[in-house]
Design brief:
Layout: H1 3-16, E1 24-28, E2 37-43, E3 46-51, H2 54-68, E4 92-95, E5 100-103, H3 106-111, H4 118-130, E6 135-136, H5 142-152, H6 157-163, H7 170-174, H8 187-206, E7 212-214, E8 219-220, H9 224-227, E9 233-235, E10 246-248, H10 253-270, E11 275-277, H11 291-308, E12 313-317, H12 323-326, E13 334-338, H13 343-346, E14 355-359, H14 373-377, H15 380-386, E15 391-396, H16 405-414, H17 423-435, H18 440-451, H19 490-501, H20 508-538, H21 542-563, H22 571-579, H23 585-599, H24 621-642, E16 654-655, E17 658-659, H25 665-679, H26 692-702
Parallel strand pairs: 1-3, 5-6, 5-15, 7-11, 11-12, 12-13, 13-14, 14-15
Antiparallel strand pairs: 2-3, 2-4, 8-10, 9-10, 16-17
Helix pairs in contact: 1-2, 4-8, 5-8, 5-10, 10-11, 17-18, 18-19, 19-20, 20-21, 20-26, 21-24, 22-23, 24-25
């Protein structure tokens, strides 16, 4: 073990246990058959942690805190109280069967981490290590690589910044879908995030993790076609109405030149560390048909990678992997990430190549209680390995974090688990850790939650929220997601909430759960009120419509106040964090636009189809955006009835299963409001953390 890794492990323990680190001794052990190992022990009043790497030691500490010390660490309210002397440990030796424990989706870095500073990233890396993650995606700061590469390739600085997307949309640029949207990227952002990316890389390396870095698959600026007119550069189709992009044919001589330049600058700025993400023709089509061309592409990209790093391994997302490309790559030089754990069925077990089975669960960072806990507890890695498949690891690939903490507590545990978990016993231990007490009411509440919001079949795309839906008489869905599906009675969720209110706990996790369950119950309840509004309008009952629309808007006002109790659910925090990166007023305005557009219209001002993809039941968004949209619509419909006119939605233009952004005269006006909100300077009021509001609102709506 290198001295710097020993120091890293010691500093890690000091960060996690600032009052107790002197009660911990660290020892090193050898891996077992190339598998990571950790041991937990107790001697002379000291906690003994052994591991074959810093991340193994970190995982040992994570398990001790969770299983033996009753600690709950979470994005959404933690319980970390410890006595002056650490609780005695039960001896344990654990061999981790999963070679790769992968973490992060490109989208996560924007939907949740767009505005993180080093302090926040440091906490997340520590959280990864405590949970045994050894392969994080490291995409922060790639802008600096592209900036230097394109300067060398002959582009002007202004053109480069126009090519780079705004900071909230980098994920889709690195996945080769778009260019230039919501930019130009400030030079100050490039410089600051080079430093941030280097800090992140240094930390994950010293902990013994294996970062996934950006590779090169031929994605280039459209401007390059002017600089290199003889090269084979294909213009892709416009991606979801946002923008098109350009693809350099991997068989073109420029590919090797530019790819070599890319890896050289990557090495200079961040080093080359063995794993490189490259997804050729991601969500697009190859310019030439046939397996022969795809094989040439695979060989070209592999050759380029190995010329930069002789030990390099190509990492591909299962969404876009093509057999011809994959099967042209050496068997020990390709790792496939099955993001949702389902693609291996459709793609012939990935033709024998090693793959990581994944959990996706969340899209866009939407706030919705859901997730099949039983599916998680079954341990997909163990199941697939018993079936004889070439699975070599587990991964978490959610598009957004900061929601459903119970689901992710178990999901992280399964990254290093051997075999399934008994869910009933697991949830009892979880509740005790999270609330700091053993309580029968809490156990009953969570039994209800497992049978409702966390029941089988709730794992994938979020169902709709009427709160965040763009108004219509017959609302079909709240975004590019599932429609309005209520697989459980809302009364059962309310029952769980009332049981939880009886628990004698004051932990942050307890308060978060109360707010979150009440939020979901009110969101569900709002749909019933909306149906009354819609019914009253269709029956031309003006008084009924006024009454029910008033009730609906009052509920949204109350809901906005409730979710503001939690810092995790405040739009103002998201915006202020974004603006803090701006070095002048112009940059701050651009960053505020990025932060707001991502969660609202997503795409271009005039042609967006992805609007409301990343809807959030957050304070500020509910009160100033979603509620205002509904007010405009209700006022419009009331005017229709008062003038005895007709309003027909049937036959309006559609966008991903709902009325398109400017589908008629009303939606034109609504779009104008949305743009004014996105482009305007936000004003937020601080609210007091009065948790008595939970009791008052529960009684008001569910007495």
């Amino acid at each position: 073990m290198h001295s710097y890794q020993k120091k890293a492990a010691e500093e890690f323990v000091r960060r996690i246990l600032p009052r107790h680190y002197q009660q911990v001794s660290l020892l090193w052990c050898e891996p077992e058959d190339s598998r990571d190992v950790y041991e937990i022990g107790w001697q002379d009043g000291k906690l003994i942690l052994k591991g074959n790497s810093p991340v193994s030691i970190a995982a040992a500490l994570g398990w001790y805190l969770k299983d033996m010390a009753g600690v709950n660490l979470s994005w959404c309210g933690s319980h970390r109280e410890l006595p002056e002397s650490l609780p005695e440990a039960v001896p344990l030796r654990h061999v981790i069967e999963q070679k790769y424990r992968v973490y992060l989706n490109y989208c996560t870095v924007n939907y949740s981490a767009s505005w993180w500073d080093w302090e926040r990233w440091e906490k997340e890396i520590d959280y990864m290590a405590l949970n045994g993650v050894n392969m994080p995606l490291c995409s922060v700061g790639i802008e600096a690589v592209w900036y230097d590469v394109l300067l060398e390739m002959g582009m002007e600085e202004d053109d480069i910044r126009q090519f780079l997307c705004g900071p909230a949309f980098s994920a889709w640029q690195w996945m080769t879908n778009i260019e230039g949207f919501a930019g130009p990227m400030p030079k100050s952002w490039i410089d600051s995030h080079l430093i941030l990316g280097q800090k992140i890389m240094e930390r994950v390396l010293e902990l013994g993790m294996m970062p996934i870095q950006q590779g090169f698959s031929g994605y280039i600026p459209k401007k390059m076609a002017q600089l290199y007119p003889d090269s084979r550069i294909q213009r892709k189709k416009i991606w979801w109405g946002v923008s098109d992009s350009a693809q350099l044919d991997p068989a073109d001589p420029l590919f090797e030149k530019m790819g070599g330049c890319f890896f050289r600058h990557m090495e200079r700025l961040y080093g080359l560390h063995g794993y490189y993400a490259a997804d050729p023709f991601h969500e697009s089509q190859p310019p030439v048909e046939g397996e022969e061309y795809l094989q040439d592409v695979g060989r070209s990209i592999e050759k380029l990678m190995l010329s930069a790093d002789r030990g390099g391994i190509w990492v591909m997302q299962a969404w876009s992997v093509r057999k011809g490309i994959a099967c042209a790559v050496s068997s020990d030089r390709l790792l496939i990430l099955d993001l949702n754990g389902q693609e291996y069925r459709r793609k012939e077990n990935f033709w024998g190549y090693p793959f990581v089975t994944g959990v996706l669960h969340n899209f866009g960072g939407r706030i919705k209680l859901h997730g099949d806990m039983g599916w998680l507890a079954g341990n997909r890695f163990s199941i697939l390995r018993e079936e004889g498949l070439n699975v070599c690891g587990s991964g978490l690939f959610m598009e957004g974090i900061g929601q459903n903490p119970v689901y992710y507590d178990l999901a992280f545990e399964m990254l290093t688990a051997k075999g399934p978990k008994e869910l009933g016993e697991w949830i009892k231990k979880y509740v005790r850790r999270r609330y700091g007490t053993k309580d029968l009411n809490a156990e009953k509440a969570w039994d209800l939650l497992l049978k409702t919001v966390y029941a089988p079949g709730t794992n994938e795309v979020e169902t709709s929220s009427i709160v965040c839906a763009r108004p219509a008489v017959e609302v079909k869905k709240s975004g590019p997601n599932e429609g309005f599906v209520f697989a459980y009675g809302n009364d059962r969720l309310v029952q769980a909430l009332k049981l939880l209110r009886k628990v004698n706990s004051r932990t942050e996790g307890y308060y978060f759960d109360l707010v979150d369950i009440l939020r979901q119950a009110l969101s569900n309840h709002a749909y019933g009120i909306y149906r009354k509004v819609s019914g009253a309008f269709l029956n031309r009952n003006l008084e009924g419509m006024k009454r029910y629309s008033g009730e609906f808007l009052e509920l949204l006002e109350d809901l906005d106040e409730i979710v503001d109790l939690r810092p995790e659910y405040r739009f103002r925090t998201w915006v202020s964090d974004a603006v803090s990166w701006g070095s002048n007023a112009e940059e701050q305005e651009l960053l505020e636009y990025n932060a707001t557009a991502l969660l609202t219209i997503w795409g271009p001002d005039e042609s967006t189809v992805l609007f409301d993809y990343a809807w959030r039941e957050w304070s500020g968004l509910i009160g100033q955006y979603y509620a205002e949209r509904w007010k405009l619509f209700f006022g419009y419909l009331q005017g229709i009835l008062e003038r005895d006119e007709e309003y027909v939605e049937l036959g309006l233009p559609q966008a991903i299963g709902r009325e398109s952004w400017r589908a008629n005269a009303f939606y034109e006006k609504l779009a104008d409001f949305e743009l004014s909100f996105i482009c305007g300077k936000k004003r937020f009021e601080e609210c007091s953390a009065d948790y008595g509001l939970i009791d008052r609102m529960t009684e008001k709506y569910f007495s």
